[in-house]
Amino acid sequence: MATLHLKAKPNASQNALLQAADGTWTVRLNAPAQDGKANGCLLRFLAQVLGVPRTSLTLLSGHTAPFKKVDVPTLTDDELRAALAAHLK
C-alpha cells in the first residue's frame, strides 16, 4: 500500500502533475475548489496517471485544504514512484 502526499491547486487551465526540486508533488486541476469538484478531479486524474481504477484511490486527508494525502492500496511505494516519474517524461 502506498500513500501519496501532494499539494492541489484548483482552477488551472488544464490538469498537470509537477515535481519540485525538493521532491514534493503538486497537481494543478482544471476544476474549482467548491462542492468537492477539485477532489473528484484530483482522484480521476491520479487514477489516469497511475493506471489504476478510480475506485481504488481514497482521499485520506485534505478534503478542504490544499495539502492532500491519497491512499493507493493497489501499488507499492516503488510502483507509485515509478508511475509518477514515468508520467513526467
Give the SSE map.
Blueprint: E1 2-9, E2 16-19, E3 25-28, H1 37-50, E4 58-61, E5 67-72, H2 77-88
Parallel strand pairs: 1-3
Antiparallel strand pairs: 1-5, 2-3, 4-5
Describe the 3D structure.
The protein is α+β, with helices and mostly antiparallel strands. The protein has one domain (2-88): Conserved Hypothetical Protein Mth637, Chain: A (2-Layer Sandwich). Helix content is 29%, strand content 29%. The protein has two helices and five strands; from the N terminus they run E-E-E-H-E-E-H. It has helices spanning 37-50, 77-88, and strands spanning 2-9, 16-19, 25-28, 58-61, 67-72. A five-stranded mixed beta sheet has the order 2-3-1-5-4.
Instruction: Give the full name of the CATH homologous superfamily.
Output: YggU-like
The number of distinct β-strands equals 5
- Measure the end-to-end span: 24 Å
Give the uncertain stretches in residue-range form: none
Strand order of the largest sheet: 2-3-1-5-4
Helix content: 25-40%
Question: From the 3D coordinates, which CATH architecture would you assign?
Answer: 2-Layer Sandwich
Report the radius of gyration as a whole number of Å: 12 Å
Following the backbone from N to C, one meets helices and strands in this order, namely EEEHEEH
What CATH calls the topology is Conserved Hypothetical Protein Mth637, Chain: A
Indicate how many domains the architecture comprises: 1
Provide the descriptors you would attach to this structure in a database record.
alpha+beta; Conserved Hypothetical Protein Mth637, Chain: A; five-stranded mixed sheet; 5 strands; 2 helices; single chain; 89 residues; 29% helix
